[in-house]
From TrEMBL, chain A:
<dbReference type="InterPro" id="IPR036249">
    <property type="entry name" value="Thioredoxin-like_sf"/>
</dbReference>
<keyword id="KW-0472">Membrane</keyword>
<comment type="similarity">
    <text>Belongs to the SCO1/2 family.</text>
</comment>
<keyword id="KW-1133">Transmembrane helix</keyword>
<keyword id="KW-1015">Disulfide bond</keyword>
<feature type="domain" description="Thioredoxin">
    <location>
        <begin position="37"/>
        <end position="204"/>
    </location>
</feature>
<keyword id="KW-0186">Copper</keyword>
<dbReference type="InterPro" id="IPR013766">
    <property type="entry name" value="Thioredoxin_domain"/>
</dbReference>
<dbReference type="Pfam" id="PF02630">
    <property type="entry name" value="SCO1-SenC"/>
</dbReference>
TrEMBL record, chain B:
<feature type="domain" description="YtkA-like">
    <location>
        <begin position="42"/>
        <end position="111"/>
    </location>
</feature>
<dbReference type="InterPro" id="IPR032693">
    <property type="entry name" value="YtkA-like_dom"/>
</dbReference>
<feature type="signal peptide">
    <location>
        <begin position="1"/>
        <end position="23"/>
    </location>
</feature>
<keyword id="KW-0732">Signal</keyword>
<protein>
    <submittedName>
        <fullName>YtkA-like protein</fullName>
    </submittedName>
</protein>
<dbReference type="Pfam" id="PF13115">
    <property type="entry name" value="YtkA"/>
</dbReference>
């Protein structure tokens, strides 16, 4: 009797251990940093003017992970804070030799009347945006308003020329033009999380 | 033992089931706050500290977790702008306690960032000599 029991344990014990290993492995995989970011929506396609010349069509940049920011240069707080955080991520990505090659940053001004090419170039230089891998785009007020609307950015121009705008208007787009995550801008921007998410998408 | 055999795959399936990929929608249209600015006293008196208060509300509900800064300068003057963080309370009031040395009209831009919206309305207030 005892012998039969021992035999059963010998046979079933490893099987149970094997199943538990699979279960805990799956749990670890899905709850770890390896978990894929969910797909939110296809990113809209658009063509806007690049301040360094020519036009940029968003879907033509397919194949690169993109971090898309909506901003205006006269914004004194939340926008430059966000851009400065992005510049920090840019420097981290450069150290890994990913910036420009696998990852591209896109900043879209929603104040094209005041944000001329010159104003935007000064903004980019001031915030150390490396335009070899960072496209700064503008269009007509109608074009940029349409692009912002397609991304779900809330914009309301005020009589004094400032904007009421969404604080969640920083988008992570994968190599296949899918929006994978939206982040808070300004003080609440999760800079380390953005960096890690970018690397996740690069590895996909 | 047979029970244990049945339990193990069930446990595995349960753990895997708990971990299905999440989907997230894009942010919905945000709620735009209404900002009402007041001074106390009204008008402010020269060299006497008073309160500058912005009340931040969404649909009549106070916004308690906003970041609010007052950028203040003399109207029409090319003087430097002073930016001061405001202290919030649980009624949506964001206040700066401050005195002014000059009787004139000042402008204040109220830089307000909520979880959903950034807005920066500019308003005026006056500082007058105290009556003797």
């Amino acid at each position: 009797m005892k012998q039969a029991r021992r035999k059963r344990i010998r046979l079933l014990g490893p099987l149970i251990l094997f199943l538990l290993a699979i279960a805990s492995g799956s749990w670890w995989y899905w709850h770890s940093e390896n978990q894929k970011l969910p797909v939110m929506l296809p990113a809209p396609n658009f063509t806007l003017q690049n301040i360094d010349g020519g036009n940029t069509t968003f879907h033509d940049e397919q194949g690169k992970v993109r971090l898309v920011e909506f901003f205006f240069a006269n914004c004194p707080d939340i926008c430059p804070l966000t851009t400065a955080n992005m510049a920090h991520i840019q420097d981290q990505l450069k150290q890994k030799n990913e910036f420009g090659k696998d990852v591209e940053f896109v900043s879209i001004s929603f104040d094209p009347e005041r944000d001329t090419n010159e104003v935007l170039k000064q903004y980019a230089d001031r915030l150390h945006m490396d335009r070899s891998g960072w496209k700064v785009l503008r269009g007509t007020p109608e074009q940029t308003a349409q692009v912002a609307d397609q991304f779900g950015v809330y914009l309301e121009k005020q009589a004094d020329g400032t904007f009421v705008h969404s604080t969640r208007s920083l988008y992570l787009v994968d190599r296949n033009n899918q929006i994978r995550k939206v982040y808070q801008m300004g003080n609440e921007m999760p800079t380390d999380e953005v960096y890690n998410d970018i690397l996740k998408l690069v590895r996909e | 033992m047979k029970r244990m055999l049945l339990l193990a795959p069930a446990l595995a399936l349960a753990l895997m089931g708990c971990s299905s990929t999440k989907t997230e929608p894009l942010p919905a249209k945000p709620s735009v706050p209404v900002i009402v600015f007041k001074t106390n006293p009204e008008p402010m008196l020269v060299n006497q500290a008073g309160d500058l208060t912005a009340t931040v509300m969404v649909n009549s509900d106070p916004v308690k977790k906003a970041t609010v800064e007052f950028e203040i300068w003399e109207e029409g003057n090319n003087t430097p702008h002073e930016t001061i963080p405001a202290q919030g309370d649980d009624k949506g009031h964001y206040t700066v306690h401050k005195s002014f040395a000059k009787a004139t009209t000042y402008q204040v831009t109220i830089h307000t960032t909520t979880e959903e919206i950034h807005t920066m309305p500019t308003m005026n207030f006056t500082v007058v000599e105290a009556a003797h």
